[in-house]
Automatic annotation (TrEMBL):
Biochemical pathway: Pyrimidine metabolism; UMP biosynthesis via de novo pathway; (S)-dihydroorotate from bicarbonate: step 2/3
Sites where the protein binds carbamoyl phosphate: R54, T55, R104, H132, Q135, G260, P261
GO-annotated molecular function: aspartate carbamoyltransferase activity
Organism: Sphingomonas jejuensis
Quaternary organization: Heterododecamer (2C3:3R2) of six catalytic PyrB chains organized as two trimers (C3), and six regulatory PyrI chains organized as three dimers (R2).
SUPFAM superfamilies found in the cross-reference section: Aspartate/ornithine carbamoyltransferase (SSF53671)
Keyword Transferase appears in the UniProt entry: yes
Catalyzed chemical reaction(s): carbamoyl phosphate + L-aspartate = N-carbamoyl-L-aspartate + phosphate + H(+)
Boundaries of every Aspartate/ornithine carbamoyltransferase Asp/Orn-binding domain copy: 151-298
Transmembrane segments: none
Full protein name: Aspartate carbamoyltransferase
InterPro entries assigned to the protein according to its UniProt record, in alphabetical order: Asp/Orn_carbamoyltranf_P-bd, Asp/Orn_carbamoylTrfase, Asp/Orn_carbamoylTrfase_sf, Asp_carbamoyltransf, Asp_carbamoyltransf_Asp/Orn-bd
Family note: Belongs to the aspartate/ornithine carbamoyltransferase superfamily. ATCase family.
Length: 310
């Protein structure tokens, strides 16, 4: 079996294949029935060791719409609280004969560790600052549907890039699909060695947004900042917040994205987040269900006796 631990390791045609597969589920999800039984009899365990609204619920909904039996394990109410190790937890889930395990964990690399210990496909639902591959896929699908393509677009990923698994997975996916990717943010929140990731770095927000086709805002991740937020949220908004005035620097039809959850008034002004024509934020959530259906379907195909990846 094959896992989805990150965008790293996926070929451009494999990313495009998953996006193509997700299209059919967008249509089904907009229909009255919303049901396809192809995963009937399969068990999907959603093991979340870190808080989530979108990712956990969309994996649950995705599994159920495909007919799987889905069960959720929350780290905060599990035996992890009694000191059970991550590996022992993984071996325990494996013994229950799951057919797919979806994992979110605060430690980078935790999902890869579990993938080596179990007998079924593992999907990374976000691990520390490492990767959040299904978020990058749903973002790419949103861009592709709104703009008709990803190739050649200028995408500005703005804010707390340093702590963001969403930024990392998006940089990998969007550069792989031949977009021009910029990262924009305070020097203290931009990771080193960005040139190796084939992105252009800007510390000036106005310059970074100039002519961008897509403006992707990131949440300030205070839970990953040991020393607290520098600068203050108010200063941050003044210098790097996405306001209507700043958005005017981007292309006239620029798409505004945010993976959620948002800090309104910090990285993004409410008037921009709620702009009915420019903001794709709720569409991103909708695409999340379709992309996760595609991932669960494709990764369990071999178990169901049909060819898996293209
Ligand atoms: N975008 C995202 O991963 O949201 P949740 O943390 O709510 O799952």
């Amino acid at each position: 079996h094959r896992h989805l631990t990150g965008i790293a390791g996926l070929q451009p045609h494999e990313i495009a294949f998953l996006l193509d597969e997700a299209e059919q589920w967008v249509d089904l999800n907009r229909s009255a029935t919303k049901h396809d039984g192809r995963l009937a009899g399969l068990t999907v365990i959603n093991a979340f060791f870190e808080a989530s609204t979108r990712t956990l619920l969309s994996f649950e909904i995705a599994g159920k719409r495909l007919g799987a039996d889905t069960v959720a394990m929350h780290g905060s109410t599990s035996s992890v609280k009694k000191g059970e190790t991550l590996i022992d937890t993984a071996v325990t889930l494996n013994a229950m004969r799951a057919d797919a395990i979806v994992i979110r964990h605060a430690s980078s690399g935790a999902v890869g560790l579990i993938a080596d210990k179990v007998d079924c496909p593992v999907i990374n639902a976000g691990d520390g600052r490492h990767e959040h591959p299904t978020q990058a896929l749903l973002d790419a699908l949103t861009i592709r549907r709104r703009k008709g393509r990803v190739e050649g677009l200028t995408v500005a990923i703005c804010g707390d890039v340093l702590h963001s698994r969403v930024a990392r997975s998006n940089i990998l996916a969007l550069t792989s699909l031949a977009a021009r990717v910029r990262v924009v943010g305070p020097p203290t929140l931009l990771p080193p060695a960005l040139d190796r990731m084939h992105v252009e770095a800007f510390t000036d927000m106005d310059r970074g947004l100039e002519g961008a086709d897509v403006v992707m805002m990131l949440r300030l991740q205070s839970e990953r900042m040991a020393g607290g937020l520098i600068p203050s949220p108010r200063e941050y908004h003044a210098l790097w917040g996405l306001t209507p005035e700043r958005l005017a620097r981007a292309a006239p039809d620029a798409l505004v994205m945010h993976p959620g959850p948002m800090n309104r008034g910090v990285e993004i002004a409410s008037s921009v987040a709620d702009d009915p024509t420019r903001s794709a934020i709720t569409e991103q959530v909708e695409m999340g269900v379709a992309v996760r259906m595609a991932c669960l379907d494709v990764l369990t195909r071999r178990r169901r006796g049909t060819p898996g990846w293209a």
